[in-house]
């Protein structure tokens, strides 16, 4: 029981103090779980980062589930995951109740008009950073370019076409090229 | 039944959110627009709010939409739904199938997913920037262009203009200030 509440409280603290989510949370989690509590090792942390990258869902939640499971099985996983979700759940719940009223105020409405413009830049920047880190090979570049082209066409003509279909197609193409390397002359390495 | 719709809608989002929330934005947009949960404008506001509050962006978005649609029960349902897929997958991977991820065929699929995700994020960002230059009625908004240009200069100069590069939260604060000033004139 003590371990359970410790798991819950530790991840509540992590959830409360990590803004922006994603990779910003990794060093915080590492500090708490590897250095302070010694729940997992550095190697575990590396492994979970790889798993988190390859599975859907926020990396912080992946980490919480993993650490919780290692310490105390299914119940531990639930306690840690609840802990990391709870702070943002409460904060956003409050904001949701208040936001509509706030937006009636002209100054705040104007502030949000400005904020709206920053969001596009942040997302574009995230993509540009990822492109820099992408392997410089023809296949990833082709998939990236093809996806961007398809998305532009979909957006421009307001087509109803899910981005999930694009993801599945890309995964399938990559798999086929790996499974049958020489048939179409594509490089699968 | 709104709770079931929230559950299904955000479960889908949770299943396909590889690489964090930005890649999932087109899917989130698809879901919230098709159910009429949020307008494009409110979605953009909420991404900014989520970026400036603790916690993963996707979870924050789910909580917000859930609250707006069905109060506390909605918030709990949507948040549960968006977390569930990754929770189950990680349990499965750590408990039984930790070798699956190293399988070369699985790796091949992932190699295809990543660049596709980057392409999706790239166009999502571009679409938002362009769309935000126009008001909802479709008229061009020169003030938006001014603010966007200023923000882009400061943000992408990455320390050449100022000593430290801006964090996302600082960029949002700066954007809020510029919005208050420029739209008041």
Q: Which features characterize this protein?
A:
heterodimer, A: 189 residues, mainly alpha, 79% helix, B: 185 residues, 7 helices
Can you put this structure into words, describing what you see?
The complex is a heterodimer of chains A (189) and B (185). Chain A is mostly helical and 189 residues long. Chain A is built from 7 helices and no strands. Chain B is mostly helical. Chain B has a domain at 2-100. Chain B has helices spanning 2-15, 21-35, 40-52, 57-95, 104-131, 142-156, 168-184. The mean pLDDT of chain B is 86. The chains are: A mainly alpha (189), B mainly alpha (185). Chains A and B meet through helix 1, helix 3, helix 4, helix 5 and helix 6 of A and helix 1, helix 2, helix 3, helix 4 and helix 5 of B.
List the helices and strands and how they pair.
The complex is a heterodimer of chains A (189) and B (185).
Chain A: H1 2-17, H2 25-36, H3 42-54, H4 59-102, H5 106-133, H6 138-156, H7 163-179
Chain B: H1 2-15, H2 21-35, H3 40-52, H4 57-95, H5 104-131, H6 142-156, H7 168-184
- The SSE order of chain B reads HHHHHHH
Q: Supply the number of helical segments of chain A.
A: 7
Helical percentage of chain B: over 70%
Task: Please state the average pLDDT score of chain B.
Answer: 86
Shape category of chain B = globular
Quick one: biggest sheet of chain B? Answer: none
Q: Pairing-aware structural class of the strands and helices of chain B?
A: mainly alpha
Total strands of chain A: the figure is 0
How far the N terminus sits from the C terminus of chain A, by CA atoms, comes to 49 Å
Structural class of chain A: mainly alpha
Largest interface, with counts of residues having CB < 8 Å to the other chain, equals: A-B, 96 and 100 residues
Please give the domain count of chain A.
Answer: 2
Estimate what percentage of residues of chain B fall within beta strands.
Answer: under 5%
**What amount of the residues of chain A lies in strands?**
under 5%
Q: Please give the radius of gyration of chain A in angstroms.
A: 21 Å
Q: Based on CA inertia axes, which overall geometry of chain A fits? A: flat
């Amino acid at each position: 029981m003590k371990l359970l509440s410790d798991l819950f409280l530790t991840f509540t603290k992590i959830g409360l103090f990590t803004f922006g989510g994603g990779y910003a949370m990794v060093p915080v989690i590492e500090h708490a779980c590897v250095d302070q509590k010694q729940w997992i090792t550095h190697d575990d942390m590396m492994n979970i980062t790889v798993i988190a990258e390859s599975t859907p869902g926020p990396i912080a939640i992946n980490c919480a589930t993993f650490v919780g499971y290692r310490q105390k099985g299914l119940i531990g996983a639930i306690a840690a995951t609840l802990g990391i979700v709870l702070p943002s759940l409460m904060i956003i719940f409050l904001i949701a109740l208040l936001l509509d009223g706030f937006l009636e105020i002209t100054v705040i409405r104007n502030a949000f008009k400005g904020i709206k413009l920053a969001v596009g830049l942040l997302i574009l920047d995230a993509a540009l950073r990822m492109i820099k880190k992408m392997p410089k090979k023809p296949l990833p570049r082709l998939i990236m370019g093809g996806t961007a082209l398809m998305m532009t066409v979909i957006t421009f003509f307001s087509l109803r076409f899910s981005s999930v279909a694009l993801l599945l197609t890309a995964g399938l193409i990559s798999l086929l090229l790996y499974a049958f390397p020489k048939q179409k002359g594509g490089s699968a390495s | 039944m709104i709770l079931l719709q929230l559950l299904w809608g955000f479960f889908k989002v949770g299943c396909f959110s590889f690489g964090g929330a930005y890649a999932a934005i087109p899917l989130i947009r698809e879901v919230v627009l098709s159910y009429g949960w949020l307008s494009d404008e409110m979605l953009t506001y909420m991404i900014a709010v989520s970026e400036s509050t603790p916690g993963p962006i996707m979870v924050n978005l789910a909580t917000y939409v859930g609250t707006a649609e069905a109060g506390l029960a909605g918030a709990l349902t949507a948040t549960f739904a968006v977390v569930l897929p990754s929770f189950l997958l990680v349990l499965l991977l750590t408990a039984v199938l930790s070798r699956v991820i190293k399988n070369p065929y699985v790796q091949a699929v992932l190699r295809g997913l990543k660049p596709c995700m980057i392409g999706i994020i790239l166009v999502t960002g571009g679409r938002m920037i362009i769309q935000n230059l126009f008001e909802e009625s479709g008229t061009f908004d020169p003030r938006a262009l001014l603010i966007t240009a200023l923000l882009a200069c400061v943000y992408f100069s990455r320390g050449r203009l100022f000593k430290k590069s801006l964090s996302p939260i600082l960029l949002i604060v700066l954007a809020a200030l510029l919005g208050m000033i420029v739209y008041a004139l």
